[in-house]
Amino acid sequence: MRKSILISCLFFAAFTLCAGSDAPNEEAIGHYNKGMEFYHNNDFLSAIKEFSQAIELFPEYTDAYIGRGNSYDNINDAQKALQDYIAASRLDEKFIYFAYGYECIVILENYDEGIASLIESVEQGINTVLAHSIIGNGYLGKEDFKKAVEIYSEVIKLSPNFSQAYFNRGSAYFLLNNIDAAIKDYEKASDLYPDFIMAYYALGTLYTIKGDTKKAEEMFTIFKSLNPNNNI
Fold first, then answer.
1. How confident is the model at residue 160 (pLDDT cuts 50, 70, 90)?
2. Out of 19, 80, 88, 199, which could bridge 190 as a Cys pair, Cβ 3.0 to 4.6 Å?
3. For residue 171, what are the CA distances in angstroms to 133, 182, 203, 227?
């Protein structure tokens, strides 16, 4: 088996109950559903609490591990996300190609192999939205910024409220020296996820480049209020 594996998925299909004692009970499902609501509203901390409750009630709840892993991923806690993705992979190995591709790109920076594995995952219809997003990250890592913009645009069409996709596309635009397009995407990311710390830092930086010191100061003030320890 390939190394350790990492799984994340953006789409969440409705959980289908299985007959027998290996199915989560109604209370666990209730917490999972609440976690889903918080997740789709970009309230990731509340989502983590609900998914954790579901896992506590049913330790083999694969979808809850994936949901919590995605929530950790969205608040940039990669280590905790990794733990949940590995737990999910042990419960359901159908995510192996996605998992390996994610690990290659996000952890190992092995972009070509990661992209190839994720393309295979997409062809199998697994985790299509997030798989495309991580493929975009791979092209960003390869410094193929035009291709990254193309991929992130596809992701946004599939999931218009995915704040991270706007942020990543904004980064690709910035690296293409398209400052106005980058600002537009960073602003959209912060609108969708008001606690998106790095979006405000990026906006402050770009407004500084444009010479709009008032707007830059406003963005940096929000950044500092959300990040008092200045951890970036």
1. very high
2. 199
3. 13, 6, 11, 20
pTM check: above 0.70: yes
3-state secondary structure 166-230: HHHHHHHHHHCCCHHHHHHHHHHHHHHCCCCHHHHHHHHHHHHHHCCHHHHHHHHHHHHHHCCCC
3-state DSSP: the chain helix, strand, coil percent, rounded to 5? 70, 0, 30
Query: Can you give the length of the chain in residues?
Result: 232
Contact 133, 70 (CB under 8 A): no
Spatial distance between the Cα atoms of 114 and 104, rounded to a whole number of angstroms: 5
The residue ranking higher by pLDDT, 17 or 127, is 127
What is the mean pLDDT of the segment spanning 42-69? 94
Q: At residue 189, what is the residue type?
A: A
